[in-house]
Amino acid sequence: MPQLRISEAAALLGVSDDTLRRWADQGRLPVHRSETGRLQVEGSDLAVLAQEIAVDHPSGLRASARNQLTGIVTKVTTDTVMAQVEMQCGPYRVVSLMSSEAVTELGLEPGVVTVASIKATHVVVALPPES
Question: What residues pair up with 82 in beta bridges, in sequence order?
Answer without folding.
Answer: 99
